[in-house]
Write a structure and sequence with these properties.
mainly alpha; disordered N terminus
């Protein structure tokens, strides 16, 4: 018995070292690279004389390439396994960091940012697949939460620590260092093992697209998609770019304090990543609340908080962290989507969902910039607070409508049982 227990512990330790750590580090880099522009935006505005629209388009290139990569990513994960697939994709991230660091103009910034998004587009899905292959189902929630937690720490590093690093190295040097770190993670992933019982087959890209298309026209999918997509895309788009400028232009925070405010919001997001699944499971077990009910309640509070930010911006230092904490509760829709469809379609359902989330993130992040540019700038490198107010009001309305939509369709209880 003692020998068997020792063997289990050894196997668990090997899994942690050879699989969890490489995939967690990959997601760490993904979240760091996603969030870093929020801190560096003043530098980009000054260096490249960018307006809000340019800044939004450049930063959202990450989300656009991320979205476009989802379908071929699914095919590669099935055919080549999560480790080697993610390793290959992350080489594009290495190239993107280098292009970004060397960029002479906004066009090259856009190209570099798009390559970074392509490179890290598989970090979370590859980890989920690897964990699903190697772990029993009862361990998946814990490891998935730990994976998200490590990613949240990456978002935290993109704030105050990166700002501190700028005292020793230029922003271009920072991206060259990130290119090196991304390369190390890619090499580590290449040598991660593939489960011996995994079937080495996969659908063609054409078949994958057709399967995704069937889901995309499904009424069941669209009953939940609006609240899931708007809920997740909103906090991703705002936190990865516009939160820093908002603190500067609306909250009137000094440049020195903005990274610290962003750090607090990243801590809040990390807490949301870690606690959302545990909270849903606790409420389901103790209060018999369905996960869809927990999702609706949390997204309703999330929307209400955004409304308070619009009318009471002077309390943004308190309200934004609460908003960011609730944002990851939109991820509770992942298992709900899976429960609504045949298990054979689960992967394609998640792919379709991911595509919509990151396309909408692109739209929101770019759209905020376009709306801000409709109002005259208040100074060199600063944007008009009224532009932020109008942009956030549009997002608030979209979130509110998505909640109403989901509540109306919940009358068909056969569609959402989870």
């Amino acid at each position: 018995m003692n020998q068997e227990k020792q063997e289990v512990q050894t196997a668990s330790a090997k899994f942690f070292v050879r699989l969890f750590i490489p995939f967690a580090l990959a997601f760490f880099m993904s979240c760091l690279l996603r969030t870093i522009n929020s801190v560096l935006s003043p530098t980009f505005i000054e260096t490249f004389h960018m307006n809000a629209g340019n800044l939004g388009m450049m930063t959202s290139a990450y989300f656009l390439s991320f979205a476009l990569a989802q379908v071929p990513l699914g095919v590669c994960l099935d055919r080549y396994g999560p480790g080697k697939t993610l390793s290959g994709f992350m080489l594009f991230g290495v190239l993107g960091c280098i292009v970004f660091a060397m960029a002479p103009n906004v066009t090259f910034l856009f190209i570099g940012r798009a390559l970074v998004g392509l490179g890290v587009s598989g970090c979370l899905m590859a980890a989920y697949k690897a964990f699903g292959d190697w772990l029993p189902k009862e361990k998946l929630p814990m490891y998935n939460s730990l994976e998200s937690f490590v990613g949240g720490v990456g978002g935290m590093v993109a704030t105050t620590p990166i700002n501190a690093a700028l005292g020793f190295v230029s922003w271009r040097g920072v991206f060259l260092i990130l290119a090196g770190l991304t390369f190390v993670v890619a090499v580590t992933l290449f040598f991660s093992p593939r489960h011996p019982n995994e079937v080495n087959v996969g659908e063609s890209i054409g078949e994958q697209f057709r399967g995704t298309g069937r889901i995309a026209v499904s009424g069941k999918f669209w009953r939940l998609a609006p609240i899931a997509v708007f809920g997740q895309a909103t906090y991703l788009a705002i936190n990865s770019l516009w939160l820093g400028p908002w603190y500067r232009d609306v909250f009137q925070s000094s440049a020195e304090k903005v990274p610290d405010l962003l750090f607090v919001c990243s801590v809040a997001i990390t807490g949301g990543y870690l606690l959302n699944g545990f909270a849903a499971n606790f409420l389901k077990a103790r209060c018999q609340l369905k996960v869809i009910t927990v999702t609706l309640v949390s997204m309703s509070i999330y929307t209400m908080i955004l409304g308070l930010i619009i009318v009471l911006p002077q309390y943004g230092n308190i309200l934004w962290p609460v908003f960011m904490f609730l944002g990851p509760f939109s991820l509770l829709t992942y298992p709900i989507f899976s429960s609504m469809f045949d298990p054979k379609l689960a992967g394609r359902v998640q792919t379709a969902y991911n595509m919509l989330v990151f396309v909408m993130s692109t739209v929101i992040q770019s759209g905020i910039g376009w709306i801000i540019d409709l109002y005259e700038a208040t100074g060199e490198g600063s944007f008009n607070p009224q532009g932020y107010t109008v942009a956030l009001t549009v997002i608030f309305a979209a979130l509110l409508l998505s909640i109403i939509w989901c509540i109306c369709f919940r009358r068909s209880k056969k569609e959402i049982q989870y």
